[in-house]
Amino acid sequence: MIRRKKMLELMKRMGIIEERKPKKKVIIEVITAPGCPYCPIAVQMAREIEKKYPGVIVRELSVATPEGRRKAMEHNILGTPTILINNRVEFIGVPRFIDFERRVRELLS
User: Which SUPFAM superfamilies match (predicted)?
Assistant: First the structure.
């Protein structure tokens, strides 16, 4: 095992093999509520970012479901839409697309 590790290190230094960097993933969760007129806009923005950037995963969680209620209670969410990025509240309400995209790019780099 030690020989294999040393051999791989040597090959990487010599440029024989490339070291793969793990790709970063960004998980966007949009907390929505039934009847909310702004929630579909936030979900659509998240989906556009998901299409544009590899490594971005979007989930929509409704507060009408047990999982959505649990997530809302966990983060003390009182209004919808609320956007969590990597399990952290980033935006409450519908953000400007440019701000949303900028934050995702920062997390991917």
Answer: Thioredoxin-like
